[in-house]
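request received
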Amino acid sequence: MIWPVLSALWSHWRRHTNQLITLLTGLALATGLWSAVQAINTEARASYQRANAQLSFGQLDRLYPTTGSIPLSRYVDLRRNGWQVAAVLTDTLRVSGHSYDVLGVDLLAYPTLPAIAEVSQTVGVAPVDALTAPGRLFMRPETAQNLRKQGSWPPIIETASVPLDTILTDIGVAENLLNRKEQISYLLVLPNQPMNRPSLSQIAPELRRVATQGTDQTTRLTDSFHLNLTAFGLLSFAVGLFIVHGTVGLAFEQRRGMIRTLRALGVPLRLLTRILLAELLVCALVGGAIGLGLGYVIAGILLPDVAATLRGLYSAPIEGTLSLRPTWIVAGFGMAICGTLIASFQALWRVSRLPLLAAPGAHAWVSKGVDRPIQAIAGMGLILGGISIFGVLDGLIAGFIMLAGIMIGTALLLPWCLEQVLKFGQGRARSPLSEWIWADMRAQLSGLSLAMMALMLALAANIGVGTMVSSFRLTFTGWLNQRLASELYVTAKDDVQGAKIAMWLSTRSDAVLPIRASKLQFQNKPLFVYGIVDDSTYRDNWPLIAQTPAVWDKVAAGQGLLINEQLARREQIWPGDHITILENWTFSVVGVYSDYGNPTAQAIISLPSLLNHLPDLPNQRFGVRVAPDKATALANDLITRFDLPAQAVVNQGDLKARSLSVFNKTFVVTGALNVLTLGVAGFAILTSMLTMWTQRLPQVAPVWALGITRKQLAKLEIIRSVALAAMTALLALPLGLVLAWVLLEIINVEAFGWRLPMHLFPTDWLILGLVALCAASIAAVLPALRLKRGPPSDLLKVFTNDR
Amino acid sequence: MHHYPFKQTIKGHDTMLLSVDRISKTYPGSRPVLQNVSITLGQGDTLALTGESGSGKSTLLNLVAALDEFDEGEITLGTKTYSMLNDVGRAELRRTQVALVFQQFNLIPSLTVKQNLSFHARLGNKNGPEWIAHLTERLGLEALVSRYPEQLSGGQQQRVAIGRALALKPALLLADEPTGNLDDTASNAVMTLMLDLVRETGAALLLVTHSNAIAAQLDHRIHLAGGRIT
Amino acid sequence: MIVKLSMFLMLFPFMAVAQGFAGLGQDAEGFDVPFKGHTLTFPKDHGAHPGFRIEWWYVTANLSDDTGSQYGVQWTLFRSALRPLRQSGWQDPTVWMGHAALTTPEHHFFGERLARGGIGQAGVTPAPFSAWIDEWQLQGPTFQDLSMTAATEEFSYNLQLTSQDPLILHGENGYSVKSEQGQASYYYAQPAYQVRGTLNLPAGPIAVTGTAWLDREWSSQPLSADQTGWDWFSLSFNDGTRLMAFQLRGEKFDFISGTWITEKGETTPLKSNEILLTPLATTVVSEREIPTQWSLSVPEHQVDVTISALNREAWMETSFPYWEGPVNVTGNRTGVGYLEMTGYE
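response:
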C-alpha cells in the first residue's frame, strides 16, 4: 500500500519542481548560515582551548607582582624556600608594525609544557640548544614567515603547537629579546609542592597569588562576540524557516484533494501522516546536507576575518583555518530536522485534522485575519517580557534576551500593524480598482506576513547593526584624530638610544612626548599606567568623557589620575573616587577618557610621579610634535641619523590608516552576515510570491474578465508587493533604531566596556529601503510577467466548469 | 417600486448589436473547437446556446466576451470590430459593454457583497447607486451587503454575480450555465429573476445552457455540436 | 608528568642512550679530564669543578628507629655542564639535578629537582660546605659536621651527619679508572658518618639513627662508549670494615673494581679479578628485570656474602631512571649498605 501512496504524493513534487527547489533552498539557507556561524564559533573556541592547552597555564595558579615585574632574586628566594614555581616573562614585541606575544618560560622548571613536549617529539630540538645561547624560538610557520628576516635572532623552530603570533621560547632567550634582564612577569605555581613550605606572606609578601579562574579572560571577553554571531545565525535560521513554512504549507494545501482522495480510497490517516512526515525528514536531510556544504564554504570564507576581528579586538589567539568536525555535522542535521518539523508542524497538524469530505469555503480569506490581534498581543507580551527580563537580570545575556524579545515581538506585531495601515487605506480608497487593491492586499497579508516578518527582521538587523558600526566608525575616527595627535611616533632600540633621540629631537621639534608605561595589577587584572609630561597636546586633544575642573593641572601636579572608560565602567570608578594602584599609592580619579579597541584597563598620571615609584621604566617610545609639513623630512632625518629601521618611525597618517583598517576588518563579518540575512529575506519574499501565485489567479482572473488589462494587473501586482515591502521597511526603521540603541547602550557597554554616542545615517536607511523595494519588486516581477505574457487560457481556466 | 429613470431599449432586429461572422478556433494540439460559426443578435435580443459538453459553447462565449482570441472570422459588437482591438481595447469592451455571469460565481473574494455589486459598474464608469440599490432589492440581497462571498450560499453568490453584471447595464450580457451549480428549484428562481432583470435592463443576452426549459424562455435558440451550428 | 619530563630530558645530549647510561660515555670535547697523579686538596675539592662535565655529591644512609625498623635515605646533587663555559643568568649551561629518596621495607618515596647554574637556585661551596638545590641542602661548618634536608609532597627528612674518620680516596689517590680504555674519574668518599635525625613520613615523624656514606665523583667521560650501566655496592660490615665495589657492564666484558676499607680507614684498591659478583634473584620493577639479590665474594679479604634489597621496588622513576636502595648483608660477614643499578632496559 505504501508504494502507490508514496508515488502519488511524490508526483506532486515532480510536477512542481520549483516548489521542491524552493523548499530545499530554504532549508539549505537556514541550515547553511546557522552552521556557518556554529563552525566559526566552534573553531574559535577550539583555538582558545588549544592555545590554553598548549601553554597549559590554564590549570596553574600564578603569582603576580604588585607592580612591574618580579626580580630574578625573588624567584630564587621562593625556590630556596621550597616553592615549586616556574618563571614566565611575557611581553608584546613589535616587529615591522606587527605585534607578537613573546612568551618566555623557564623550560627547565616547566618542561611539561605540552607545546614543548610536542615539539621535542616531532622536531627533535636538543634542549641544550633551547636552554643555552642563542636559544630557539618556537612559533607557527605563519608567524615565522614574517620574522625570518630578523637577522640577529635565535634560530626559529616551526611548530603548530604554539598559538598564532606567539613566540614561545626559554625565559633566558626572552629576556634578551625583550631587553628585560632578570625580570619575571609572573610565576606559575607548579603542582606537587613539598611539605613544610613557608607561606607566601612570609617570604614574598609583595606577590599576589591569583587562582586559575582569574587568569583566563579570553573566554569571557570573546563570549559576547560569539553570542553576537550566534544571534545572527539564529536570525538567518528563523528567516530560512519562514521559507520552509511557506513552501510546505503550500505543498500540503495543494495536495489536500489528493490526500482526501487517498483517504477515500482507504489509506489510513495515520499512515498518510507518517509518510508525509518521512517525506519531510528526507527533505530535511537533503536540504541539511546542502546547507552544511554551504555553511562550510561560508565559514571558510568568513573565518579569516573573524580571526582578524578577534585578534584585533580581544587579542584572542585564533587561527584562520577550518576543520570539519563530526559534531558540527550532526548538529547541522539536527537543526535542519528540528527546523523542518517546527516549520511544518502547522501543515501536518492540518492534514491530521483534515475532514474526509470537503467543506465549502476552502479559501478562508477573512477568517485568517482573526488571530492577528492575538498574535499582536503575544508580540507585545514578548517585547515587555524582554524588557522586564533585562530590568531584573542585567548583564550581556539579559541584554540579548531583551533584544530577542523586542525583535520577535515586533515581528509578531507586524501583520496587525500592516492590517491597520491597509484598513486605513481601504477606508480612504475612492476608485473601485484602488478599493480592490487595498482589500486584496489585506487578503494577501496572510500569505505574505511571514515573508514580511522575515524582511522586517532582516531590515531592522541591518539598520541596527549598520547604525552601530557607523556610529562606532564615526566616533572612532574622531577619537583617533584626538588620540593620535603627535605627528610622528618613534621607537628607539634601547633606553640609551631613546635618551639620545629625545635630546636630538628637543631642538628640532615643537615637543617630544615620552610614552612610558608600566604594567601593574588592579583588582587582579592588568592595569597599564602611562606617565605623561604636561603638554598642550594632551590638554587640547585628549578625549575625556568625564572630568573635574582643572583636570590637566591636577594630573600635571601629580594630584590626580585619568582612567580609561573600560576601567571606569567595569569597576564603577568615576571622577571623585580614589583608586590604589600600588601599595600606599592612592590617587584621586580626576577624569575618564575614551579608549576604544583596547580590552585592558589603563590609567594616566604625571610622568615624574610615575618615575618616583617605578624608576626603571623603559624610555624608548616618543610622540613628536612638529609642523605637519616637516614631519616626513624629520622622520627621514631620524632614520638616517640614528640608523633606525624604517618601522621605528611612524607617521601619524600611517598609524591612523592602520588603525582604521583594523577597525574595518573587525566588522567585515558583521557586514557579510547582514547582507546574507537580507539576501535570505529577499529569497523568502520571492518564494512567498511564487508560491502564492497559483492562489492569486482566482483573485486576478475575475478582475481581468471585468475589463482590466493583463498589463495593468501585472503592474498592480508589482506595486502591491512594493507597497507591502515599503510599509514593512517603514516599520522596520524604528525597530532598527531601537536595536541600534540597545546595541550601543547596553550590549557594547557589557561586552566591550565602552559606550558610544548614537549617530543617525538617513542615507543608509534610504539605500536599504531601496534595496528592500528592489527585492520586493524583483520578487513580484516573475509572477507579474507570467500574468502579462502568459496565454489568456491560464486565466480562463479559472472560469471553466470542471475546476 | 422605485423610480426607474432609464429609457427602455427597443427590442428588434432593426438595431444590430452583435455579429459573429464565420468564426473558427483551434487550441494548439487539439481538434477545432469552433468551425465557421455565425450568429447575429439585435439589441435586447435573447439567445440560448445549447449543446453537448465540449461542443464549443463556452469557447464561443469567451470569444464574444473578448476574453480569448479567434483564428478566423470576425466579431463585431456595436461599433467595435474585435480583430481591430488590442488588449486595452478588449479590456475596455469588457469593462463597459459586456458583462459576464459564469457558472463559477467568480466574485472577488476580498470584497464585500456591496463592493462586488458595484465593482463592475464603477470600473466601467457607469455607477448608479440607485440602480444598484434597486438591483440589490430585486435580487433579495439587502441583508447580505456587508458579507463576504465565502459567507454566502451558492444561490446567493450567483445572485450577487448577476447583480454585478447588470449593475453595469451592459449592452450584452453573457451567461455561461449561470445556474449549473444550483438545484432545480433555486435554478428556476434565479433564472426567472435574471431574465426579468435582463428585460428590465434592456440588455441583449447570450445564454449558454443545457436546459431546454430555459432555452424555451428565450427569443432564439442555437444548437452547437462538434463546433458547428446545427 | 614524569613521563613527559623524561621525554624532554631524554633529549639532553648527556643522556643520549646510545652513548652509555646518562651520556657518561661521551667524549670530553672542551672539558677537563682527570689525570693520574693529581693530588686532591680539601676543602677545595669538596666544591664544584666547573671545568668537568659531570659531578655529584651522593649520600646514602642506612637508618633504623627505636623499634628496629630499617630505613634508607638518599640525597644526591648532580651537576651537568651542557657546554664547557660559564655564564651568569638563565643561559648558563649548567644544569643541576637533585634526587632525594626515602625507602622503607614497604614503601619507596623519591623526588627530583632541576635548576640552572647561573641564577643561584642550586650550587656548591666548599668551605663552609654547602650543597643545595631549591630548599634541599647538605651543609655544615665543615665536611665532618653536616645537616641534610630534603622534602617532597610525600616525605621529608632532616638528618645530622658527623664523622671524624678520614676521607677515603678510591683508585690511585682518588684517580679511579672506569674502563680498560682508561676512562677515569676523581673519586673519594666519606663512608663513616654517624647519623641521627627525623624522617617525616605520611604516617608521621620518626626519630632515627644510623650510618651514612658520602660519595664524591667528577669527570668528563667516566664511561667508555660501550659501557651501558653499572652495579655499585657500598657495604658497611658490622665488624667496622667496609667495601665499595662496582661493575661497569660493557658490551664485550664487564669492568669490575672496588676498594677494601679497614675499620681504621686504610684502603686497598681491588682489581677486576679480585671481586666476584653474581646476581641471585631478579625482580620486575617498572617493566624491567632488575637483580635485587646478589652474591659477592672477595676471597682476598674473606668476604662471601649475600646482598638483599630491603625493598625490591626501590626504583627511581626520575628523568633518567635507575634502581637505588638500602640492602642487608648476610653470609660470612653481616651488615648494611646501598646498592645502585643503572642502565637496565
